[in-house]
Structure formats: C-alpha cells, structure tokens
Write a structure and sequence with these properties.
23% helix, 2 domains, alpha+beta, five-stranded antiparallel β-sheet, Quinone Oxidoreductase, Chain A, domain 1, binds zinc ion, 13 strands
Length: 234
C-alpha cells in the first residue's frame, strides 16, 4: 500500500510503498477513505514534538473508511461497512475506562503517535474500538468526528454540561474552537461567543500561568478548550 511516512521533524512526509498490514486476532483492516490533518500532526512535523513511537511512523488520527478484512474471531462486522475510528484506542479495563472516562485511559494508544495512523491506504484497528458510520454521513466529512468534533463535544456537553439558556464563551476559534460553536448549539446554549486568536493572545498574556514561550501552540488547541466557560443562569 501507499503511505505518507513521517521520518523526522522539518522534513516532508514521504509517500512510499509499505506492506499492507494484516489484521490480527480481534482486529479489522480498514481501507482509509479520509484522514483529517490535525494540528498535532503539524506539531510532530514542524515543532519537534516527539512521537511516542520513534519514526518512521504513519501519522494521522482522524480516520474514516470501510472494513476491508476481518482478523480471527471478529464478529459483527463485514467487508464494506462504513466506519469511523477513534483518535485514541483505549484498554477498556483500567479504572478510568471502567468509569466511562476512556479519555484518560492509563494505557491509551493514539493512531499516528503510538501506532501507525491513517495517512495510508489501509490501517488496522481493534474491532472493539470501531464505530459504524451511518451511510448518510459522507466518509470524507465524517473523518473529523474522530477528534475535531468529539473534543469540543466532550468539553461542551460532558464537561461544560451546557443546557438550553446557558451562555458559552469559546476561547480560540481554530478548527476545534469553531466546532465548539456547533456543539454549543447542540447543547442549546443561549449564546455563543468566540474570541479570535489575537484576543486570546492578549488575554493569556495577562495570566502568568499561560505565559508560555510560544503562546501560539496553545491557541485553538485542546488546552484552550479546557478553559471553555459555560455559565448557568440562576
Ligand atoms: Zn488531533
Ligand atoms: Zn483504559
């Protein structure tokens, strides 16, 4: 298969032939239809952020596609099923996972970071972590659900617990921040405000805790989303 392989920071990804992975027991092979480009990928490529698995590595963790093959023991899936893969694979058995907090799993494995990701024609994934993507959601558009939508959804709906009538402030309107507006609307927020990055820089410059050397690295990223504010009328 063809894959865009990451070899080192400050070097372009190299499109090359590599063996198509074979699904092991409990795994499925997914033919990639689309894979979003996340800022995390750009951090690896442009900003010297180290990957957990040393390169060469296939980046990409916003993956949609179709089931192409089933490993031993896999049931409930068939070739051609349209699927979405989570950005991060979880163990399912640690305390966090058993409490429904898979996002802080002790043993998580991220596509395009711990294991080869979706900038390739095929990727293998544990069958237990695969989600059926309804046919009415185009695969190309659906791929960003894996990270760019689930991240603000978690912040807005689960952590912010936005309900109708709430006012919502989004700091950092990059890709994730922008999608937080949609999630705010889903939650029924009474009003949603966004501060553009320039305003965020001014804001965070006043807060010593956020006086990082390179503020641009937090603007629009998940750290900003963690500062999501949802106020609740009395
Ligand atoms: Zn990401
Ligand atoms: Zn776990």
């Amino acid at each position: 298969m063809k894959a865009a392989v990451f070899h080192a920071a400050h070097r372009p990804l190299e499109v090359t032939e590599m063996p198509t992975p074979e699904p092991g027991p409990g795994q499925v092979l997914v033919k990639v239809a689309a894979c979003g480009l996340c800022h995390t990928d750009l951090h690896f490529i442009d900003h010297d952020t180290p990957t957990f698995k040393a390169p060469p590595l296939v980046l990409g963790h916003e993956i949609s596609g179709t089931i192409a093959d089933l490993g031993a023991g896999v049931t409930g899936w068939k070739e051609g099923d349209t699927v979405l893969l989570p950005a991060v694979l979880t163990c399912g058995v640690c305390a966090a996972c058993r409490e429904g907090r898979e996002n802080i799993c002790d043993h998580n494995q991220m596509f395009g970071n711990h294991v080869d990701g979706g900038f390739a024609e095929y990727v293998v994934a544990p069958a237990k972590d695969v989600y059926l993507l309804p046919r009415e959601i185009p695969l190309e558009a659906g791929s960003i659900i894996a990270d760019a939508i689930t991240t603000p959804f978690h912040a807005v709906v689960r952590r912010g617990k936005v309900v109708p009538g709430d006012w919502v402030l989004v700091l950092g309107c990059g890709g994730v921040g922008s999608l937080a507006f949609g999630c705010g609307a889903i939650g029924g927020g009474g009003g949603t405000f966004g501060l553009l990055s320039v305003a965020c820089i001014l804001f965070f410059s006043l807060v010593p805790f956020f006086a990082f050397k390179n503020l641009s690295r937090v603007i629009g990223a998940k750290l900003v989303m963690a500062l999501f504010l949802g106020t609740r009328p009395a």
